[in-house]
Amino acid sequence: MQRELYTDLLAWKASPSRKPLILRGARQVGKTWLLKTFGKQEYAHCVYLNFEEDPRLSDFFQEKINPQTILNNLGLYLNITIHPENTLIIFDEVQESTAALNSLKYFQEQANEFDVIASGSLLGVKLGQAKGFPVGKVTFLDLLPLSFIEFLHAIGQEKLANHLLQISKTKNIETLPGPIHEELLSLLKKYMIVGGMPEAVKNYVANQDFVSVRKIQQDILDAYLLDFSKHAPKELIMKLTSVWDSLPAQLAKESKKFKWSDIHENARAREYEATVEWLNDAGLIYRSYLVTVPKFPLSAYKEKSSFKIFLIDVGLLGAMSRLSPQIILDGNTLFTEFKGAFTENVIAQMLKVRQLPLYYWASEGRAEIDFLLELENTIYPMEVKAGSSTKKKSLLVFAEKFHPTLLLRASLMNLKKDGGLLNIPLYLAGLLP
Fold first, then answer.
1. What H or E segment, with its residue span, contains residue 127?
2. CB distance 198 to 236 below 8 Å
3. How far apart are CA 204 and CA 193, in angstroms?
């Protein structure tokens, strides 16, 4: 299974100023598979340590931390020789051992000849709670569910994937041939049902059966609920479940701004904001913040108390919403279902793969722009159209007020530039700029 992050791992390995790497990502996004594959293909030796499967590993990091002593003792315990050259050491589920996590500082300072990668499903939560973590001693990478391009590669559509990548690299705006455009929309619908969780994609490739894919997605959702009860503070567990269960209904509204009262009538921010922070740190949600003044940097103008929440994966959103996979056979209904919730979620997912922060703009009930993008030192408004409508009222309101150089509309229509408006087919939105 081809993952774009593999290129970043190669760049990390080749860097002369390489530091220990922390790979973050939610459960089931493929971190362990990616790291084991990287170790097998790029190194002569790979030492894999899983602190969840073998809690005793943490004991080797409890005394005074000396990397060479730790590795010698681990070698005795595992009956292996840990070579200083061309060896990758993987600390998996490292959130289970604070001492092992903190040892990365000493590997950077005292044993930088060893390549060390730490990873874990709830590592973001652990780091959010950690005190005194050695900032500047490690490098971070984030692994997300498969992108639409990665999905195309996985299902054997490499030529279409490469063609889309080529389009994204040219400045020429050329409409795609009709049959190719329709085929890509059809494949995007399948991606919106299957999503990007590797196990679900692998099952779909093997069986071409959406029902069995749904079963896998439900198993993943059940595993997330178990994580709540196992790893979250006791006072948050019930609230986490309530917030999590409310997400499909929140996204199904006309205005997708997250409302505490939609959890239950008397819910208040001060009671529940810690749960949203936990879900964000666990990598299970993406937050998009309201910006009222679209100026650089957008982060300085965001309203922290006003945001939308998108799910990590559109396929999991479909499973949570109990959306029938058969809907892909019903024209373009999938794109408009639940007031376009799935369409906005898949675009948010695409933008996060490109490491773009999520922002939106609204103006006193008159208009709303679904996404504001900071690209190439310019702020672009992008409206997402779930159907085939060509109306652009919100874009025009924004243009009249702020005079952007270009308006973006992601829709079911083909690639086309019409004056100051660039229409981007939904399947290309993740390849901006």
1. helix 123-129
2. no
3. 10
All structural domains of the chain, each given as residue ranges with its CATH number in brackets, are 5-142 (3.40.50.300), 148-431 (no CATH)
Helices (H), 195-255: 198-207, 210-231, 237-251
Nearest one of 86, 88, 112 to 17, comparing CA atoms:
112
| 140-147 average pLDDT score | 97
* Averaged pLDDT score across all residues of the chain: 93
289 in Cβ contact with 304 (< 8 Å)? yes
Listing DSSP states for 36-65 in one string gives HHHHHHH-SEEEEEETTT-GGGGGGGSSS-
Q: What is the residue-wise DSSP string for 282-348? A: TTSEEEEEEESS--SSGGGGEEEEEEEEEES-HHHHHHHTT--GGGGGSTTHHHHHHHHHHHHHHHH
Amino acid at 257: K
% of the chain surpassing 90 pLDDT: 82
Identify whether the C-beta of residue 379 lies closer than 8 Å to the C-beta of residue 353. no
Please report the sign of the dihedral spanned by the C-alpha atoms of residue 3, residue 7, residue 8, residue 12.
positive
Judged against a pLDDT cut of 80, whether residue 329 lies above it is answered with no
For position 242, what pLDDT does the model report? 96
Q: How far is CA 247 from CA 279, 316, 425, in A?
A: 12, 11, 26
Using one digit for the tens of pLDDT, what is the confidence trace for 55-81? 999 999 998 889 999 999 999 999 999
**52 phi and psi angles, rounded to 5 deg:** -85, -45
Q: How long is the chain?
A: 433
Work out the pLDDT band at 130, boundaries 50, 70, 90. low
Q: Which residue reads 């981007």 in tokens?
A: 424
Number of alpha helices (DSSP H) and beta strands (DSSP E) in the chain: 16, 14
8 Å CB contact between 345 and 295: no
